[in-house]
Design brief:
mainly alpha
C-alpha cells in the first residue's frame, strides 16, 4: 500500500470537523485508488471510486453504505453553506475506522486467496 493510515483514535485528535473529514476521506480516496485500482482524475468522484471497488472487488453492501455515508458527509460539509459541523464526530471517526479495517481485511483475504503472486497471461 505504501501509506500509513490513521486510526479512528488518532482521527479524534482533530478538533476541527473540516480537518477530520477531509483527512479521513483523503485517506479513503488514496486507499481506493492505490489498492483497489479505482480510477483517478478530476472527473472521477469518490462515489465513482466506491462503485468501481464494489463492482471489481465485491465489497459488502455494508462497507459500501458506510463509505457512501462518509463521502456524503464530506460533500455536505464542503458544499452546503448551512452544514458546518459533524452531527457526531466520534461516530464519523469510528465509521472511517470500520471501513478502513474492512477494506484492509478484504485486501489481505484476496492476497492470501491468490497466493500473493502476480499472474501474467
Amino acid at each position: 500500500m505504501g501509506a500509513t493510515f490513521s486510526s479512528a483514535s488518532s482521527y479524534q485528535q482533530y478538533t476541527n470537523d473540516f480537518e477530520l473529514v477531509i483527512r479521513a476521506t483523503k485517506d479513503l480516496e488514496y486507499l481506493l485508488e492505490q489498492s483497489f485500482h479505482a480510477p483517478s482524475g478530476k472527473q472521477v468522484g469518490l462515489h465513482d471510486k466506491i462503485s468501481h471497488a464494489q463492482q471489481t472487488f465485491g465489497l459488502t453492501q455494508d462497507t459500501v453504505k458506510q463509505m457512501r455515508y462518509l463521502v456524503t458527509i464530506r460533500n455536505k460539509l464542503v458544499h452546503d453553506h448551512e452544514f458546518n459541523r459533524l452531527p457526531d464526530r466520534v461516530s464519523f471517526a469510528k465509521s472511517y475506522d470500520s471501513v478502513e479495517k474492512e477494506l484492509k481485511q478484504h485486501l489481505k483475504h484476496n492476497k492470501s486467496s491468490d497466493g500473493g503472486a502476480c499472474t501474467i497471461s
